[in-house]
Amino acid sequence: MTWFEALFVLVAGVGAGTINAVVGSGTLLTFPALLAVGIPPVLANVSNSVGLAPGTAAGAIGYRRELEGQRGRMIRLIPASLIGGVVGAVLLLTLPDSAFHAVVPVLILLGCLLVALQPWLKNWISVPSHTHRGAWWVIPAVFATGIYGGYFGAAQGVLLMAILGLGLDPDLQRMNGLKNVLATFVNTVAAVLFIIVADVDWLAAGLIAVGSTVGGFLGARYGRRLPPVALRALIVCIGVVAIVTMVF
């Protein structure tokens, strides 16, 4: 990797960390960047997952204020994310890439629609308002999203924001903090598994780790300033970009 290519990957990491902290889908920056500098797809996917884990953690730390009062939710949902992340990472190492290509764009589109229609759908879905438990389907949905996140991860945040905002709490900033925590556990457990059993391009992973950590703190600092309507619009826009990128 040349100095220019290294700088290119590092900048992509900063952008990915920022986007992941605010919405998710940072993989759509770093994964193509790794392919552009000549890293094979599977090795790029593995190295990208390892590199983005510290950045996702930085975003979660940056959103710690929004996590106040959500300890019970984290205790219930983190195991689902952990197990899902392990399953997804194993699938990445055992299944052909074509296995998810037809499903992933549909999942992202569904997530975008759910986020966009959340204020109206809330009136039609019964969610206990007096507890932090939310709808019964939140835990299995978080588990399924963890599988997807461990497998590839692009727009994992879009799906989580749709699930959490609809099934738990309409406050998108609080759910963004929770989303960052869950994504951190998915990315970390997948990264650990990849480090143990798969090949990692450590230069690429290191560059993305440094960049995404800086981006994670930047995203957390400025993302919380977005009003709900703007945040919802940003989630939908990034989701649409993810769909177009993956389809075309």
From TrEMBL:
Q: Just give the chief location class.
A: membrane
What are the record keywords, sorted?
Answer: Cell membrane, Membrane, Transmembrane, Transmembrane helix, Transport
Please, which domain of life does this record's source organism belong to? Bacteria
Q: How does it sit in the membrane?
A: Multi-pass membrane protein
TM region positions? 74-95, 102-121, 141-168, 180-197, 203-222, 229-247
Q: Where in the cell is it found?
A: Cell membrane
Identify the GO cellular component terms for this protein: plasma membrane
Please report which protein family the annotation says this sequence is part of. Belongs to the 4-toluene sulfonate uptake permease (TSUP) (TC 2.A.102) family.
Q: What is this protein called?
A: Probable membrane transporter protein
